[in-house]
């Protein structure tokens, strides 16, 4: 589905909040200054940065400064599973993103939630699977979703993107980048953990598709699982990065599979076969990763 060639909303912008984190930096490198479905990106940072397309803004401390007219807001900012950042900020950041979207005239808000809201599930989690987060990070993302989906009338519509592991940006990728030895749980079948992953290039193209649907007036869901269609073995990613690892017996509480169903996303975005390949995910991070 093509983007509108022209519309009364041409010249609008996409505000990306959290543009200097691992995922935000990788997306900036992938897009390379290009427009995103006709929208010019505005990159938010809390630091004073010069250069076209940047806005200095501390979302939790001040109102949005003057920015060009917005079409959409993408919130990537917030704490990470590794413990960086304050998890209590998740809900206030969601409210700040919504207020910024309203102030800038945006028509849609995309919030980076997480697969962690599902907690332990035996089957592939669907968007209507009950949330049972187990970690503080999962609880913080659930609180963010609640803050975003229970707002007064008049706010722009929201889609909470329950993103799986972004290959390279998550804990395994950070361990690889640090050079530390990696140990994987080995389960009864002799294999290791399998997770829902997505490469940063694929994530960028998914976001482009969602912006395209927004601009074409397609109704978007309030929550959406975001991952490649086929789950990925962590061992395959390590092989693709050229890294070895040691095995350890999986403890009783360890989960071999933590995966999501992405049929709803597949109705909105056309994946390529290689999008589920560990080699492509690893290559994307080597090229664009922070």
From TrEMBL:
SUPFAM superfamilies documented for this protein: NAD(P)-binding Rossmann-fold domains
Q: Which InterPro entries match?
A: Epimerase_deHydtase (IPR001509), NAD(P)-bd_dom_sf (IPR036291)
Which Gene3D superfamilies does its entry note?
NAD(P)-binding Rossmann-like Domain
The NAD-dependent epimerase/dehydratase domain, residue ranges? 15-170
* Domain of life, source organism: Bacteria
One Pfam family named in its UniProt record: Epimerase
What is the protein name stated in its UniProt record? Nucleoside-diphosphate-sugar epimerase
| Organism of this sequence | Rhodovulum imhoffii
Q: What is the lineage of its organism?
A: Bacteria, Pseudomonadati, Pseudomonadota, Alphaproteobacteria, Rhodobacterales
């Amino acid at each position: 589905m093509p983007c509108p060639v022209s519309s009364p909303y041409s010249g609008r912008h996409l505000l990306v909040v959290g543009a200097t984190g691992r995922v935000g930096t990788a997306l900036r490198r992938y897009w390379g200054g290009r427009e995103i479905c006709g929208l010019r990106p505005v990159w938010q940072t809390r630091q004073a940065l010069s250069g076209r397309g940047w806005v200095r803004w501390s979302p939790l401390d001040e109102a949005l400064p003057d920015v060009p007219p917005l079409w959409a807001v993408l919130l990537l900012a917030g704490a990470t599973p590794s413990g960086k950042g304050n998890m209590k900020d998740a809900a206030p950041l969601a409210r700040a993103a919504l207020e910024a979207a309203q102030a800038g005239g945006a028509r849609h808000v995309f919030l980076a939630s997480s697969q962690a809201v599902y907690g332990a599930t035996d089957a592939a989690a669907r968007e209507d699977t009950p949330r049972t987060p187990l970690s503080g990070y999962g609880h913080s993302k659930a609180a963010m979703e609640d803050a975003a989906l229970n707002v007064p009338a008049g706010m722009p519509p929201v889609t909470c993107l329950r993103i799986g592991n972004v290959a390279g940006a998550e804990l395994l990728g950070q361990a690889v980048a640090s050079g530390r030895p990696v140990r994987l749980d080995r389960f009864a079948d002799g294999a290791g953990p399998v997770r829902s992953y997505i490469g940063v290039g694929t994530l960028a193209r998914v976001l482009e598709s969602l912006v395209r649907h927004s601009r074409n007036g397609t109704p978007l869901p309030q929550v959406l699982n975001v991952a490649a269609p086929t789950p990925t073995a962590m061992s395959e990613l390590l092989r693709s990065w050229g890294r070895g690892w040691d095995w350890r017996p999986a403890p009783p509480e360890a989960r071999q599979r933590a995966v999501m169903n992405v049929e709803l996303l597949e109705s909105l975005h056309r994946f390529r076969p290689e999008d589920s390949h560990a080699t492509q995910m690893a290559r994307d991070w080597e090229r664009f990763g922070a």
